[in-house]
Each structure stands twice: as structure tokens, then as C-alpha cells.
Amino acid sequence: MIRHMSKTLPLFNKTELEHAAQLIRSQMLPTPQYVWPLINEAVGTEVWVKHENHTPTGAFKVRGGITFMDWLVREHPGVRGICTATRGNHGQSQARAATAAGLSAKVYVPHGNSKEKNAAMRAFGAELIEFGDDFDTARTEAMRVAEEEGLMIVPPFHRELVRGVATYAYELFTRVSDLETVYVPIGCGSGISGLITTRDALGLKTRIVGVVSDEAQTAKLSFDAGQLLETESADTFADGMAVRVPVAEAFEIYSKGAERIVTVTDDEVAEAMRLYFRSTHNIAEGAGAASLAALMQERDRMQGRKVAVILTGGNIDTDWYSKVLRGETP
Predict the structure, then answer these.
(1) At how many degrees (to 10) do helices 190-201 and 14-25 cross?
(2) Domain shared by 198 and 317, yes or no
(3) Is 4 contained in some domain?
(4) The CATH number of the domain where 147 resides is what?
(5) Among 73, 156, 248, 291, which residue's Cβ finds the most Cβ atoms within 10 Å?
(6) Are residue 205 and residue 310 in the same domain, yes or no?
(7) Does residue 200 sit in the same domain as residue 304?
(8) Residue 11: which pLDDT band, with cuts at 50, 70 and 90?
(9) Which domain holds residue 165?
(10) What pLDDT digit, counting tens, does each position of 150-167 carry?
(11) What are the backbone dihedrals phi and psi of residue 152, each rounded to the nearest 5 degrees, phi first?
(12) Measuring CA to CA, which residue among 309, 34, 61, 40 is closest to residue 185?
């Protein structure tokens, strides 16, 4: 069943998207999209890789920080600081943008979070607090503290976050024509929502395929059932997809605008990370390699089609990446 024509009102139109792209370009260069022959050979079709690992924070989330903070200081001039929860890339984005705007940034992460992502968030100016055993528990605490301390809560999904994130889709779609399918990982859903909304704003027919970990299937279960479904755990080393509780606003978009959602195992993700390194010498974190892992899984289905995968980030701890290169799965 083809489900890729969205029926919901768009988050933004083409003009608003173009304005966001201009704002993003004032702080960073567009990221490249390349075809790598060895990846084509491994998958058996033409594959464009969108390199969001080449941003100032090493991940696509930096874009949403730029647009969200621009909106925040204009619409809430008296705000003194923000509070948010993250597994790392969102937190780096918000800390970077808040610090540049002269605001404080309180960032919650679960216990056992990536040490190197934690260090990067602190370096970007975050006051980092560890709380709870997973992202969703940390998110609940961040919302409580923001209310208690009079800070602006930065949710995992917000129109201005998505408008910024969507600029990678705008760059991709305006530079590569006739893409049949794009694969993108799903955590809280800003990435896939940005792709769907941009595709619709540009009047394209490209199919969008979401990717989740088989250990964190909340988005797929919700998509298949047509209603929000939580999971009891989200135990995957691909922390960008380690979400138990679906975000309703994102679900409204991908439930109508995605072609399908597929699951990948941690072993498949690790193999995709190795393929990226062998073929391109780019580092991909777990969620960053999930799109390629899904395409490898569906290679027979995608023969002869022009596809793209979003390498959403390259922020993975050294110890874990060393294990992956040794043929192990963290």
C-alpha cells in the first residue's frame, strides 16, 4: 500500500524552508551528498549518501538548534536559559546554539550515556545532569525541572526544530533529482518529519522509508497499528534510535507520509558501520548507519532504483567503534 502522500497540513511551506536554509548557511556550509562506488557495488544500485556527519557537531541535529534558538530569542526575549533531554546529538546542538545566544543550557542524559558525547556537550557549554536509566525517563525529569526553574523546555519535536533539520532534505532534493527512495532513521522523529514535509513542499514523489532498531520499535509498532504504542525498553547501542515513547506530533506526519518502516538489528547496524569505513573512510555512529543497514537488508527490492541514505551522524565513543572495526557488536 502506498502511503507517502501526506494528508496533514504542512509544518511549513517552501518559502519558510528556503528562509531556514538561508539561516543555516549563515552558520555552516551545506553538507555534501556523494555516490561511493564501493557502496553501490555492495548494494547493487545507485546510492547517494547525505553526509550529516560533516556538520559542526558531527550530526544533523545542529540544524534544528540554529532555527529553534533564532525563534526563541525573537519570540521569548526574556528567556534566560533552556532545559532539554538527549542521548547526545540534540544536546550538542542546543548547548551550542544557546551558548551563542547568551543563554544557559541545562541538559539531561540517562546514566551510562556516551562519555564522548557527554564531553562534547559540556564543551559546547551545557550543564550536564545524568538522570534515569533511559532517554524517556531523562526527558520527563527535564520537563519537570524546566517548569520548576522557569527555563524554556526544548522538546524532542518542535516546528522550529523540524524546520531546521529539514534543510538537509532541502539540500539533498535540490541537488539530486529523481530520487526514488530515501532511507532515514527514526528516534523521536524530527529527521523523517523534515524529509516528508520537504518532499511535500517541493511537490516530489520520493518514497520515504523509516528505519528503527529491532530493540526500539515504538515508531514501527505505532505506524503498523495506526496508533501510538510504547515499548518497555529501547536497548540498542544505536542510541539515536533508543526511544521507548513515540512523539505524537511526529507520528502524525510519518504515519501518513512514510512508505514503510523497517527494523534493523544491532549486528546489521555494525556491519553497515564497517561498510561505511571500508568504502568511504567516514565514521558513522549506530543510528547514522541504520539507513544503510536497512538498504542492505532490502537490496533485492531496490535493484535498479536511485536511492539515498541519510548518514545522520558520526558521534560514537572510541571504545565502541574499535569493537565494531574488530567485527564485534557493542
Answers:
(1) 120
(2) yes
(3) no
(4) 3.40.50.1100
(5) 291
(6) yes
(7) yes
(8) confident
(9) 14-60+159-325
(10) 999 999 899 999 999 999
(11) -80, 120
(12) 309
